[in-house]
Amino acid sequence: DIQMTQSPSTLSASVGDRVTITCRASQSIGFWLAWYQQKPGKAPKFLIYKASTLESGVPSRFSGSGSGTEFTLTISSLQPDDFATYYCQQYDSYPFTFGPGTKVDIK
Amino acid sequence: EVQLLESGGGLVQPGGSLRLSCAASGFTFTNYAMSWVRQAPRKGLEWVSAITGSGGDTYYTDSVKGRFTISRDNSKNMLYLQMSSLRAEDTAFYYCAKDEGSWGQGTLVTVSS
Lengths: 107, 113
Known about the structure:
Chain A has about 110 residues and is mostly beta strands. Chain A has no helices and eleven strands.
C-alpha cells in the first residue's frame, strides 16, 4: 500500500499569512493526488484534484502543486474561514490512502 | 449541483449487519467510480471501498475484505455498502464520495453492545 505523510501536523498562522502544507507519497503517484478541507463536525470538502486542478467554487487563494512523490497545498493569504484540517489523498492505486492531516489553527 | 445523501447508519451490536445507502444526483452517475470513506471519532480519514462506474470492479481495504460488500444500482443512481460481522473498530462516520468530486454529509455507524 502507498503510505502518505503530511507536514507539519499542526500549523499556527495569522490571517493574511501564506501557508504551505507538504504531502509525500511512499512511491510515485504521478499527479493522482487530491486535497480536502475539514472543519469540526463537518464532512470533508473537496478542494483540488490531479494535484493542481481547483474544484469549481474553491477560492483562487488555494493552489496545489507537485508530482511523483512530493506535493504542496498553498493558501496565498489565509482567511478566517480557512482555519481547518487539511488532508491529502492518493488515488493512483488501490487501496486509496490519506495523509494523517494538517491542522491549521490561529496563532 | 452534485448531491450525495447517505442513509442507513445507526447502532448495531458486534457481529451484526447494516446496509448503508447513498442517493446521488446532479451528475451522470454511471460515468463515475464511487467510494466509501470512513472517519472514526476524533480520527483521520480512511478509504474503505470503491466501485467502478459499471459496477464491474470493486476494491476494499484489507480490514473490511470478506465482511463488507459495495454495490450500485445505476438505474436508481444509488450506491450501497453492505456491512456484516461488524466490530467496535468499524464505528465511524461513513461518507459516500464521487470520484474526483464531492462527498456526502455522512452517516454514523456505532457498533456497541
